[in-house]
Amino acid sequence: MKYKFTLSLFIIGLFLNSCGGQGPEKTKKAKEYISSLQAMKLDDLKRQLKKDTTLLNKLIKTASFSIQLTSHFSSGEKSTAQKSDAEFSLNADPSKVAEIFDAYCKQLYFNQDFNGTYKEDKFSLYARGRFEFESRYSLTDNNHIIKTRDSVFKPFEPAVETIEKSYFFKGKKLAKNEIGLKRIDSIETEIKLKFPVDFEKFTIEKSKKNTSYKNQNVEIENIKANVAQLKIPIAVYTDIIGYQAYNSQNVRMNSSALSSTPMLEIRKDVQRNLKELLGIFSDVLKEDDVNDARQLLNKINQDQLTAKDDMVEFNGYISGLSKEHIKELGDIAFYEEVANTGKKVISAENQFVIVEFPDDIKTIDVFVATKFKSLQNTRIVKFINHYLDVKYFDVNQPNIIYNNYEKDKGIRYGISNKDGDIIIAAQFEKIKQVGNAYFLVDDKLHWLDVSGKKMKALPQFQNYVQTIKPGYDVFEKTIGDESAVGVVLNRDKVVLPFAYHRFDKYGNFIIGHKNSDVDEIYDLNFKRIPGNEIKTIQTINEFIASDVKYPLLFVAENDQKKKALTDKNLKILTPFKYEFISPFFEIKDYYIAGIRTPDGSNYLYGLLSKNGKEVVPFIFEHINEELDPSGKLKYRLKNKAQALKIETFIKTFGK
User: Fold this and answer.
1) Where are the beta strands (DSSP E) in 139-235?
2) pTM of structure
3) CA distances, 86 to each of 65, 241, 368, 376 (Å)
4) Which H/E stretch holds residue 623?
5) Which in 142, 397, 633, 649 has the greatest CB count within 10 A?
6) Under 8 Å CB-to-CB from 497, ≥6 apart: which residues?
7) How many CA atoms lie within 13 A of 559 on its CB side?
8) CA-based end-to-end distance of the chain
């Protein structure tokens, strides 16, 4: 399915290049302000209030301002719905959700965004927070998905709330304003989840402009074909858990795309306070008795004055806007600027929602949660670079890319250490870390000289691949028309030539996979180890995805393409006589092997132990790598498919 992204900005009540606003003045205490007015003669008081009334009318007009950013990923597909989708329901077992939530909390980690200009109170629509929390609750150690957890809890993940309570750096508590570029090692975190256990619905009719739900007004901005645009109060929106629609044939449809953005509007209390203050001024202007006028002034309160002064400040910003400035910023940046500049008077009281369905909409059912179950946990969450290869990260002395935002330049990148000390000032437009001390700057490889605080270009190499041991790095370069890797000492002396496509390190030896489909084996001092017939070699489980922790065994192949089992010390455990040696997906101590039939037309299957012993004779037409649903080994003997528990199979046919 192709998704089309559209983004547009709607500004209501905004008059560009309007008359200049009054500069902001400091909010006076209400009593002082009232006293200053009451000290005036009636004519002077009315003259002042007429000026203030003109200003208030302008501010009330500005208070009709709202800004609406519309962004939507459309499915781009529309079809006639002929069969109803299942009616919306809540199927999750709350006790199971609670059980997985506990696992979620236990395996929660965080990563850190290193931003030298980070501001906690600055609104940003799509920017990441300083800390990003992620849980491995649905992954095994080998990064395979635990389907029983993933399928149940995945819908609830976006609702998990993490509240940072305390920060720790080198085991000591650190105040939030002291973090800077320091790498935080743990965060005391309150983890919350509120999920629905019951719901009700209300219906939106295409023909209506408004729908009332629990004394809240839901506005239907537009329903055109299969797409609806809705303005929903935040009080309602936060509890919405789903949408379904019906077409003209009353076929029920699930939503196919959904997006929402908060609408920025002047707060209702600010608007109310401005109108109340205007009402007081109007009443005073009608009075002919100075004492009665002064008495009316006592109705003025601090909230009204604060609203006036804050709106004067925001009106000044609005009056100074130009179309050129808005165009230069772009929609999202302008939206964020408005939110940050007007934070004293602006709030998001409504959500602009775009919901799309497969077919034309007649009515929409909106499902709202009415009852929730709340879960809560408090944990010390650790930092972990769990989704990056270890080559990018030195636990003790990590070099870290950080960023700064510079006006007129945008984001620039530099490098710091975990103590927050800057090694390389933020100056690069584009940088990618490929190793702890290796970086691609504008797609060219550089080495970080930490002590000299310099980046040194390495034009002789295309990329850094890995470190075999301190000082001995694997680099990539182009030889002729092909890419090749080699081992280089201190980025200068070639130890193993650029004639390989990969190096693998296992315990006390290294396998160099040559471009000519020949493998060479070296010790950790890069001395060649005799191959003992071995032409190529790979781990027994190299090409399968399984959660089983297999012993470190290898399948070696000789010049005749016959295979043998080899242990972690390169001891050959079997003769080179097998056509293949393969692991089971769910069994770690036995392996399927095959030999040719006497006429060479097919294979005969048998089993090897982890020590290389043939535990059953090679008489089977097939042995399956996967067990059946009941945990039995599937095999074929004398053209008959059968299944037995592995223990029974070995006992029945064992040598």
Assistant:
1) 161-169, 172-174, 186-205, 210-213, 216-224, 227-233
2) 0.70
3) 42, 16, 17, 32
4) strand 622-623
5) 633
6) 486
7) 3
8) 55
pLDDT-based confidence at residue 264 (cuts at 50, 70, 90): confident
Residue 135 has pLDDT above 90, yes or no: yes
Which backbone phi and psi does 202 adopt, to 5 degrees?
Answer: -130, 160
What is the pLDDT confidence band of residue 74, given thresholds at 50, 70 and 90? low
513, 527 Cβ separation under 8 angstroms? no
- Residue 540: what are its φ and ψ, rounded to 5°? -65, -25
**pLDDT above 60: residue 297:** yes
**Structure-token pair, residue 489:** 């000492």
The answer to whether residues 284 and 296 touch, using CB atoms and an 8 Å cutoff, is: yes
Domain ranges of the chain: 535-655
Distance (Å, rounded) from C-alpha 243 to C-alpha 363? 11
Closest C-alpha among 393, 375, 397, 374 to residue 384: 393
**188 has which bridge partners?**
166, 380
595-608 pLDDT tens trace: 999 998 999 999 99
Q: What is the Cα–Cα distance from 281 to 501, expressed in whole angstroms?
A: 83
Between 542 and 438, name the one with better pLDDT.
Answer: 438
Determine the Cα–Cα distance for residues 589 and 548; give it in Å rounded to an integer. 10
**Contact predicate 265/346, CB 8 Å:** yes
Distances in whole angstroms, Cα of residue 425 to Cα of each of 128, 414, 418, 584: 22, 5, 15, 52
Integer angstrom CA distances of residue 279 from 292, 315, 339 = 15, 20, 29
Report the pLDDT averaged over residues 206-211. Answer: 92
pLDDT (tens digit, 9 = 90+) per residue, 151-177? 899 989 989 999 999 999 888 999 888
What pLDDT is recorded for position 128? Answer: 62
What integer pLDDT is reported at residue 387 of this predicted model? 45
**For helices 30-38 and 42-62, angle between their N-to-C axes, nearest 10 degrees:** 140
What is the three-class DSSP state of 294?
Answer: helix
